[in-house]
Amino acid sequence: MTFPSPKIDDRRFQDLVREALDRIPAHTPEWTHLGESDPGVTLVELFAFMAESVIYRANRVPEAAKSKFLDLLGLKLSPARPARGIVTFDPGRMTESVRIDKGTELRAGSLPFSVVSALDVVPLTSIAVVKETTTLSDDQALYYKRLYQSLDRVQPELATYRTRVVDGKSPVRLGSQTVDGALWIALLLAKAPHEDDRASVLADARRSLAGRHLSVGLAPYLAERPREIGSRRGSASEDDPTPIARVEIPVADSKSTTTGTRPLPGWKARPFRGGTSLHKGPDILEIQLPGDEKELDLSAWDDLDPLEAGVGEFPPAFDDSRLAERIVGWLRIVPSNSSDLAVVWAGINAGVVEQGTQVENEILGDGEGLPDQEFRIKGTGVVGSSVGIQVVPDATGIDWTEIDDLAAAGSEVRWNDPSAPPGSGSKDDRPVNVFAVDPHAGLVRFGDGMRGRRPPSGTKIVARYRTCAGSLGNIPAGSIKSGPDLPPDLKPSNPIPTWGGADAESLEDGSRRVPSWMRHRDRLVTAEDFLEITRSTPGTDIARVDVLPAWHPDLDRSLPGDVAGMVTVMVVPRADAQNPDRPQPDTSMLEAICAHLEPRRLVTTEIVVKGPTYVPVKVSIGITVAGGYAAPEVRDRLEARIRQYLSPVRETGLSPQELRTFRGMENGWPLRKQVNRLELVVEAAREDGVLRVDELLLGRGDETSSRDDVDLFGLELPWLSAISVSVGSAVPLSALETTRYDETGTAIDPNGTGSTGSNGGATRPRRVPVPVVPETC
């Protein structure tokens, strides 16, 4: 339901002129010359011009009334939200560390960004890598086993790996996809030094790092992790105190050796700040490096034997010798729970930026000592909670602060009953020097004296605030390229796309929320309230919302109603560029939804916001094509029909008749509905040109035998991982693609390299990571 703004008068300039000229013969028949050169016609046109301006202002009255109506309801339109991002600084040819101050301006074309907090930029670059698990053939495994027999008297368990670069394109699960569960960051020189100068170059590098705070940016992949609101285990509005167990730098352990002469590698934890918001999205770790250059030995093991490079606790081995020559040292980041952390990107010299422009000392007007004074901010896209007000001069010397509701302010005439006992409430201690802000409309309001102080007569109202470009700030990686105040050699860049920017809510969008607002009063009580309020989250494009009351995703086999006080909200976005056939909400969408739901939930309600879990399903169909139809066309249409039938969301633009064909599945495949083979047969038989369905095979995951049903529980939805439509007999499921995927879309090795079970009480051999040398160079 919407409230279209009515037109009080829709006449234009030409309509007014024509109407006036048509009246002339009836009222003044003696006026016969009506050409454009006649002075009377000129006066008519002047009247029409002025009347059109009056009509324009009159037509604005309903729109202003609509805005006031929303204010009376208490329905606040959401202001614009600035985009945030991670930016790194390439030092180029710089040889000394440089400091980037808070508020330093960066630019993506003409779009301004500013650094949120100061950071040290060291004259090094970095590359993040992991020891990714790999499997070998029996012959290769035997070869490496014999090659490393000299590592220990007891033959260790070899965990072979390949060095994989974490480049920001696809996530790496540190727990399941690596042999050691660690993220390694190599510190690199701009170019490889000459062998004769290597010692002095390393000494200069240590000198530039000593005593510095090394800013390491870390971008986790959180699309499949749930967001919880009001839970003791973690809230969307609270920081996780222990997302990272330790950040380590290398040290040489002189107490033990491998051959009697070379120290074994050792790692020492360093204190750091930050990293407490990794459960929300990208964050910065500020690592305190030792002030003594002797302690700062980031490359404790140079000139390793070829069989030692990358083995065990040594850093990963690089196949590119030119890259390996640039390495100054290493950092190792070990998460507290590596199985839950998937990393997309990591790097040094990183800082957080926010899109927007800071406006200082804007004079809004003069204080007149009158009640309910109101001033308009000149800028557009005002960021909420960024407005600061100064009343100059102010004899009280008290700062004016923002308040949500002026009705909660105290009277400017203070009173106190000294005879009243303490705590009796006889003292009015409510704030007085306050103002209220409507960032959407750009209005600043002051009190009337009884509720908030009036700006004294003769004063100036001075404002400072921040503006942003809303959704225009969500830019792709590599868009930030310059900064007017940066040194010439320092080049900024955003390694991952920025996130979180949203435009201000329009008056039309706000009016659409009026019917639901009247029902739920912006409070999450019923399942319908959760559905409507979640869909109204600003800055999100949500295709589907499912609300499961009294249910938690950890209890996937239970039914809604088993967990009192818990509500699970499953959201599916309209589109997902990385996984178009199994869309998952990204970090910014989940955080926006949580921020939208948090102030509206009941205090006794715990909310979990999560995307679906996709279960791979394979379908193979054999059909007979009716006469007069082309087999390739029927085959393609049937494949598209089955994909649409099992889709988690329906395509936009479908007609009501097309939606009715899904019969109760208009929003997508329902939760907890099993995929039935006979239902697929019936759906396939409905396609034009299909004379008969000869055979239909249904399998789950990498199964090779057909089954009648694929059961789905909790938040599971089917994902058609492989489909085959053929004329005649169906293709066996074993001939279809059998690669399995996890929630991130990453292929899972079917052979697996997880830990083996018990071996009858014998001591398990030491597990040693070993790099795999490529067969071709």
Plain-language structure description:
It is built from 13 helices and 37 strands. The strands form 10 sheets. Strands 13-12-16-9-6-7-37 form a 7-stranded mixed sheet, with no helix packed on it. The chain has a 5-stranded antiparallel sheet with strand order 3-4-18-1-26, with no helix packed on it. Strand 35 and strand 36 form a beta hairpin. By secondary structure, the chain is α+β, with helices and mostly antiparallel strands. Helix 1 crosses helix 2. It starts with 12 loop residues before the first helix and ends in a 6-residue tail after the last strand. About 6% of the residues have low confidence.
Q: Profile the largest sheet.
A: 7 strands, mixed
Could you tell me the radius of gyration in angstroms?
A: 34 Å
Overall strand count: 37
Q: Which sequence of strands runs across the widest sheet?
A: 13-12-16-9-6-7-37
Shape: globular
C-alpha end-to-end distance: 66 Å
Which residue ranges are poorly predicted, with pLDDT under 50 across at least 5 consecutive positions? 231-243, 254-261, 739-764
Helix content: 10-25%
Strand content: 25-35%
**Mean pLDDT value:** 80
Number of helices, counting only DSSP H or I runs of 4 residues or more: 13
Structural class: alpha+beta
Per-chain topology:
Elements: H1 13-27, H2 39-59, H3 61-73, E1 84-90, E2 98-100, E3 105-108, E4 111-115, E5 119-121, E6 125-133, H4 138-147, E7 157-165, E8 167-173, E9 183-188, H5 198-209, E10 213-220, E11 227-229, E12 244-257, E13 263-270, E14 272-274, E15 283-288, H6 321-324, E16 327-335, E17 342-348, E18 350-355, E19 357-366, E20 374-376, E21 388-392, E22 401-402, E23 434-438, E24 443-445, E25 460-467, E26 491-493, H7 507-512, H8 514-520, H9 527-535, E27 542-549, E28 566-573, H10 587-597, E29 606-610, E30 613-625, H11 631-645, H12 656-660, E31 675-676, H13 677-685, E32 690-700, E33 709-710, E34 716-727, E35 740-741, E36 747-748, E37 767-771
Parallel strand pairs: 7-37, 22-23, 28-29, 30-34
Antiparallel strand pairs: 1-18, 1-26, 2-5, 3-4, 4-18, 6-7, 6-9, 8-17, 9-16, 10-15, 10-17, 11-29, 12-13, 12-16, 14-15, 19-25, 20-24, 21-25, 23-24, 27-28, 30-32, 31-33, 35-36
Helix pairs in contact: 1-2
